[in-house]
Structure formats: structure tokens, C-alpha cells
Amino acid sequence: MCGIMGYVGPGQAAPVLLDGLQRLEYRGYDSAGIAVLDREIDVRKAEGKVERLIDLTKTSPLNGSVGIGHTRWATHGAPSDLNAHPHSDPSGAFVVVHNGIIENFYELRDRLTEDGHEFTSETDTEILAHLVAEAYRGDLAAAVRSAVAQAEGAYALVVMTVHEPGKIVAVRRISPLVVGLGVGETFLASDIPAVLHRTRDFLIIEDGELVIVDESGATIETIEGEAVDREPLHVDWDSEMAEKGGYEHFMLKEIHEQPAVVTETLAGRLEEDGSAWLDHVDFDDDFARNLNRVWITACGTAYNAGMVGAEIFRRLLRLPTSVEYAHEMRYADPLVSEGDLVIAISQSGETADTLAAARLAKERGARLLAITNVVGSTLSREADDVLYTRAGPEIAVASTKAYMAMLIGQYLLALRIGAARGLADSDLADRVIHGLHALPGDLERLMQSEAAIADAAKRLAHAEDVYFIGRGLDYAVAVEGSLKLKEISYLHSEAMPAGELKHGTLALITEDVPVVVVITQEALYDKTVSAIQEVKARGGEVIAVAYEDDDRIGRFADVVLRVPRTDDLLGPVNAVVPLQLLAYHVAKIRGNDIDQPRNLAKSVTVE
Ligand code: AGP
Questions:
Q1: Which range of residues forms the domain containing residue 385?
Q2: How far is the CA of 302 from the centre of ligand 1 (A)?
Q3: Probe target for ligand 1 pocket from 191, 254, 301, 373, with the most ligand atoms within 8 Å of CB
Q4: How far is CA 334 from the centre of its chain?
Q5: Which of 344, 518, 564, 569 is deepest in the core (most CB within 10 A)?
Q6: Mutate to test the pocket of ligand 1, among 604, 605, 606, 607 (most ligand atoms within 8 A of CB)
């Protein structure tokens, strides 16, 4: 977790660092700090968001054209001014920022304490400053290598010293790190969008590499010291895409981008005859034909997208497919074997649990296919095949458009595999292909019903508990709707299969407990209606998400949020949108920080 920045150039470092940190706040935002080198190193830190740090630097400015910065998501030590990065060695000559966890922190700190070192913070990071200073013999890169050799874990580290002004040394051990190449200036950042408005040329630092940055560019070596030749990556993203674009929050903007995201994710990939052409998905037809089993692994919203994906694979291909939480799968000794396809889904491509499950799958001989939104992410580089979701940068912590793109990616993938091994139901496949092309228009229309959804949000905003129910694919959507509500509204909410309600949870349904019901799956319609009746009989209020031409639902539900009709297998694509908007408007009524909800971070790069 955390966002890191570095700058070497002719200009003032502080404004560049602060601006970059604001763009990285989605990675963590409980405290922030920068260090700038003039003749000495000057540090400013503040608990809270980067805005507070900016205020501090207004009253207490920093001068210098070399600097490093950090926005934190606490792991070791509570959020505080003291625990905020950067951290220095006792002399103040070395300063570090760090993203990730030092696993042998206690061991190292005990050893350093015995040697007489004193620490001013509770962080694992501070020991890195001590280790670098201890090892320094006139060569910063060598001292960083020595520190990294001692510090186990997954992290990215950035170091600066008064002894070698004009230079920054950084290391990537799993956690992401990129170098932005400007004209006469060079940037370090946790991700590309942080400096995309300053340069479009990047060096992606790989796991196990060290980079020495000065104003003329960067030199990459392995941690062991071998030279690495890396071609810069030219990034075409429109920097406007990373801005709010007139919406009050990134989340709302990202919800409204979904019609375009579906268009983008489909673009050039789906022929009218149903053949899917997926760039970077390289398995051949033989592999698809001989496939016995598919595993989908992911966390959070990506897992919820995988729940839909598993059903797509089962229905379109009759292929045994299971969906596993990555954090469970990695320790469950899963029966993955050679010839299986493991699909790891991750918006960021950096989620530690998902990467671990993906690596396990590869070790067991499975073919690893990544569905990810971030080009150059760790997952994309480790996978045999990659399906990029093309959702553009997603800034809000609550994932919306990335979920949508993950769904579309999984329909495409099923069609690609089906083209090789045959589709279980060609009529269903035709309806899906036709429906996919119609989706962007459907979603545009759906966005116009936002006012009705905002109105329904008033019914939930002051509840204490909310339940989400549905059956089959409707249940998968209910799970995602419930997660969205929890993470940004802070309301207690739970999703369950509608048939499960009567087995216990019904005891909690009273007139104060609203129930959101997703009801799009025709084959299960009457069963879901029975669950609605059970809720109504206990006085519970029912908000239903149903097709726009469903003329029965009005008899059972108190409020109906309508979505365009599509084939039931595509139902989740439309049905999730009212739930995203519902969560957004409830959180807004409750006055919460929608884009950066408490206790959460966009990219969970620690176990
Ligand atoms: C979704 O709203 C959450 N922010 C979270 O559940 C997220 O989907 C999860 O942490 C996985 O992230 P990833 O897709 O980047 O792997």
C-alpha cells in the first residue's frame, strides 16, 4: 500500500511531489510527507490527507530541486505525524520512503537496537534509513543494495542522501514503481497516472531491480548489480481521463463512463459472427479444446465479477468452473493441475493475494490468464495470457467501471474458448453476442434514471442494516451491490441467495430493515418472488431491480428500479448499475468521503 514519488530536475521539487501525491492518494491517505534536498535535507510531514501537507508547506516552504514523497496507508504504527514518511537516519543525511512491508522488521529492529540505534517512529520503514546509513561507504546504490539484502518482504523503496545530491536510488521488490522520463527532469512514482500530465514516456521497473535516477534519466540494474537495458514505454492515455471531468466525485464519473468502457473493451474484439479476437491471449485452439477445468481467482469486487464469470463459463461452455477468493486459494492446497486454465482477475494487477494465488497456479502447471486494467502491472507481466479491460484509470476506491469491464472481458473470453471447442448452446451464444453489441446503448439509457435511484437512496440512508438478495446471477450482482454500499456508506449490509433468507436471516427482517432484491433471471423469478413475500410479511421494505418491461414486480416491491432487458446471461451488466448509483447516493446523503472511504485503499499490495 502507499504511494511514492521522486523528482530530480531543474525546477522546484516540492510542487511536483505534492501534485503527484494527490494523484496517488487512492493508494493511501492517512498521512503524507515530502523531503527536499538543497544543501541539507528538509522534511515536512502531516497526518491526514495531502491537502494538510500542502497547507503546511505554504506556511513552511521547502526549496530544492531533488526530492521524494509519500502518501501512507498505515501497516506498522498508527497514522500520525511521527509515523508519516519520509524517515531519516539519526544524522538526517539519508532519507527514505517505502511502500509495502518489511517482514523481518522486529528481528532487524532488535539487532539495530542492540547496536545502539534509536528509533523515533513505530514504522518498519525507519529501519531502512538506518540500514542504508550503516552500509554507506561513498556509494548510495551499494548501500541500498546492502539494506535490501537484509530486509525481507514485498516493497518499493526510494532513497536520497546529502552525500550524493542530484541523485535518487530506488528498488522494486514486488510493489510497483515506474520512472517518468521528462526533458531534463526525471520522476519516480507508484503508477503512471501520477505523472502522466508531465511525461508520456516511462520505464517500468521490474521486480528485483534497482534504479538510479538523475535529471538526465535513469539507469536500471538488477539488485545484484547487472546492467538492464529497458526500452521506454510510450503511454497514450489521455490525461483528461484521470480527472473528474465535471462530476462531483470520481466514483460518479466512473459509473457514467461505463457505456464507453463497454464499447472500448469490446472494440475490435468481437465479430458479428461471434468470433472473438483477443490481443495478448495467446493460447491455441488445442489448449482450449483440451481444457478440463477453469479456476477464477480474485478478491473483493474482482471476485464478485468472477462469480458472474464462472456462471458464463458454465452456461456457454458447460465447462467446470469455480471461483475462489485468492487469499483462501493460496493456502488451500487447491487441486489445480496441468492443463487447467486459471484466470486471475485484478483491476490493479498488483493485489498481493491475487498475485500469490496466480503464482501458485503457475507452479502447479496451470496456464495463467490475467484479466487486468493496468498495462505493465505485475500480474500482466507474470501471466501467460492477458486480457486488458481497457477501463482507463480508476481513481475511486470503490470499483465500478473496472467491474463492468471485467464482466465484458469474461463474456469475450468464453466466446473465444467456445470458438475453439464449440459452444454449449449456440442460440444462447447468438443472443449474448447480439446483446453485447447493444449494451453501450442500454447503459446510456440506464444512466438517465439516476434521479429515481437517488430518490430510492433516501429510503436506505438512515437504516442500520440492509440486506441484498437474489438467485443465480442475481445473487452475484447482489453481492457486489452490498459491497459497494458497505464500503462507501458504512452501513451494515449483507448479501445472500434469496433462498437462504428463510434459513435464519429472516429473523432479522423488521419494518426497519430494507431489502434490495435483484430479480432479472426468468428461470428463478417465482422463487425470488417467494423470498420477497417472506420479507413483506415481516414488514420489510423491498427495493427491487428488475427489467423495464417486467409488469409483475410492481405488485410485490415498494420501489422498482428499472433496467433495460437483455438476455438473462447478460443481466448482471445492467443490473449492477442501479446498485452502484444507490450506494453512491446513500453515501452522499450521509456526507461520507465517497472517493476515499475510511480504512480502505485502492490497491491492496500487502497480504
Ligand atoms: C472494490 O470496490 C474494492 N475497492 C476492492 O474490493 C477491490 O476490488 C479488491 O481489493 C481487488 O482489487 P484489484 O481488482 O485491484 O485486485
A1: 252-443
A2: 6
A3: 301
A4: 25
A5: 518
A6: 604
Distances (CA, A) of 107 to 84, 87, 110, 133, 138: 22, 19, 5, 18, 27
> Is 602 marked active-site?
yes
Identify the CA nearest to 247 among candidates 396, 391, 26.
396
Q: Are residues 374 and 326 located together in one domain of the fold?
A: yes
Task: Check whether residue 82 and residue 194 sit in a common domain.
Answer: yes
Residue type, 511: E
pTM: 0.78
Residue with CA nearest ligand 1 atom 2: 398
Which secondary structure element, helix H or strand E, spans residue 502, and what is its range? none
Among 155, 34, 141, CA closest to 105:
155
2 carries an active-site annotation = yes
For 244, phi and psi rounded to 5 degrees?
-75, -20
For residue 473, how far is its CA from the centre of ligand 1 (angstroms)? Answer: 20
CA 562/CA 452 separation, integer angstroms: 9
- Among 443, 461, 491, the domain-final residue is 443
Per-residue pLDDT tens digits for 254-282: 999 999 899 888 888 888 777 788 888 99
CB 391 within 8 A of CB 401: yes
299, 345, 348: residue to mutate for ligand 1 pocket, most atoms within 8 A of CB: 299
Encode pLDDT of 325-384 as tens digits. 999 998 999 999 999 999 999 999 999 999 999 999 999 999 999 999 887 788 999 999
The CA 369 to ligand 1 mean position distance, Å, reads: 18
Q: Is the peptide bond before 514 cis (omega within 30 degrees of 0)?
A: no
Residues in contact with ligand 1 by the CB-under-6-Å rule are 299-302, 346-348, 351, 354, 397-399, 487, 603-604
CA 20 to centroid of ligand 1, rounded, Å: 22
Helix (H, G, I), strand (E, B) or coil at 350: coil
How many A from CA of 300 to the centre of ligand 1?
A: 5
- Show the cell assigned to 63: 526549496
pLDDT grade for 239, boundaries at 50, 70 and 90: low
Q: Examine residue 596 and state whether it is found in any structural domain, yes or no.
A: no
Confirm whether 317 is domain-assigned. yes
The pLDDT, as a whole number, for residue 240 is 55
Nearest ligand 1 atom to alpha carbon 487: 2
Total number of domains constituting the chain: 3
Q: What is the CATH number of the domain that holds 423?
A: 3.40.50.10490
Closest CA to ligand 1's atom 10: 300
Name residue 410's amino acid.
Q
Nearest CA to ligand 1 atom 8: 301
Let me know: does 578 contact 560? Beta carbons within 8 Å. no
How many CB atoms are closer than 10 A to CB 72? 30
Residues 142, 124: Cα–Cα separation, whole Å: 21
In the chain the first and final C-alpha atoms are separated, in Å, by 10
